[in-house]
UniProtKB/TrEMBL annotation:
Annotated InterPro entries: AAA+_ATPase, ABC_transporter-like_ATP-bd, ABC_transporter-like_CS, ABC_transporter_ATP-binding, P-loop_NTPase
GO (cellular component) term, any one: plasma membrane
Protein name as annotated: ATP-binding cassette domain-containing protein
Predominant subcellular localization, coarse grouping: membrane
ABC transporter domain span: 10-233
Length: 303
């Protein structure tokens, strides 16, 4: 297959991969348009790395189709259209940072100048250091330089900030942002809702090998960042509380009502109006783990 001008940056259909009994990726469909910055968000074991490995041709799918700019992953990588930043590996201990990046550059027809890739990734000052002497966060930034040097149209980053401290993270995201500002496409995986919120236009939320939510960051955030209201509501039944406006689920345990809400302010107002004896009202954020569970449950309910 050849590179097609009008094709999306990435198009994935029916992707599956099983390791023994584990369905690491269990039927993923995904289209990433050119210029989008997309976060693959999910807890440990959700299938993010397996998906990324297949997208960049490092793992073979059991089933499904992958097209990168309308071509196979291998062809797109060979042509330097895809820059890959793996979670680990790829660095040789005795080779300097500059030599490492130069080696990758030499494999491509129209690479960036090596010094430019080094400085964009914030590792120019480490250019003469051997990989063995780098910290985990510094190694990550060298991997970022290796991903940038082909001059790719699509950057694929697997948990790019995993080993970085706060300063390195900030610098990394600034470089990533500068790359995306040139209209190119980025797909990155992360555990952190905050990273997805801050740096992506769109979030693809994965759980147990499936996509459980996909959309603009604000829409997915609204779904995952639900709130809970707990209160003592004498005499109230769970089904009546569940029918209050703004409540998505209600439980009563040991006299305490636990309400999951789309709009906690509205729910508090309703409780005070309808149940004047309500007391000890607490409003809390729904944890990310709860949110994943809720979204997974919701996705199974509609299957
Ligand atoms: N090479 C492998 N052999 C066996 N099982 C694997 C292999 N790679 C992944 N898995 C399993 O597949 C599932 C998905 O793993 P994957 O690494 O894709 O998830 P992830 O979302 O990237 O997780 P993490 O955030 O921890 O990196 C997990 O249950 C994992 O144990």
């Amino acid at each position: 297959m050849d590179i097609h001008d009008g094709a999306p940056a990435l198009s994935v259909a029916g992707l599956r991969k099983t390791y023994g009994e584990t369905r690491a990726v269990d039927g993923i469909d995904l289209v990433v348009d050119r210029g989008e910055v997309v976060a693959l968000l999910g807890p440990n074991g959700a299938g993010k790395s397996t998906t990324i490995d297949m997208v960049v041709g490092l793992a073979r799918p059991d089933a499904g189709e992958i097209a990168v700019f309308g071509a196979s992953a291998h062809e797109a990588v060979r042509r330097g259209m895809v820059g890959v930043m793996p979670q680990e590996g790829a660095l040789l201990d005795d080779v300097t940072v500059r030599e490492t990046v130069a080696l990758i550059a030499s494999l491509h027809r129209t690479p960036l100048p090596v010094e430019e890739a080094l400085s964009r990734a914030g590792v120019a000052d480490l250019a003469d250091r051997r990989a063995a002497l780098l910290s985990g966060g510094q190694k990550q930034r060298v991997r970022f330089a290796m991903a940038l040097v082909p001059g790719p149209d699509l950057l694929v980053l697997d948990e790019p900030t995993a080993a970085m401290d706060v300063t390195a993270r900030r610098e990394f995201w600034q470089s990533m942002h500068a790359f995306a500002e040139t209209g190119r496409t980025v797909l990155f995986s992360t555990h952190y809702l905050e990273e997805a919120e801050a740096y992506a236009d769109r979030v693809v939320l994965m759980h147990a090998g499936r996509v459980v939510a996909d959309g603009p960051v604000s829409a997915v955030m609204a779904e995952v960042s639900g709130r809970t209201v707990t209160a003592t509501v004498p005499g109230a039944r769970a089904e009546d509380l569940g029918a209050l406006p703004g409540v998505t689920a209600a439980h009563v345990r040991d006299g305490r009502a636990e309400l999951r809400c789309t709009d906690s302010d509205l729910v508090v107002r309703e409780l005070l109006t309808r149940y004047p004896e309500v007391r000890d009202i607490e409003v809390g954020a729904l944890g990310l783990e709860d949110a994943f569970l809720r979204l997974t449950g919701a996705s199974e309910a509609v299957r």
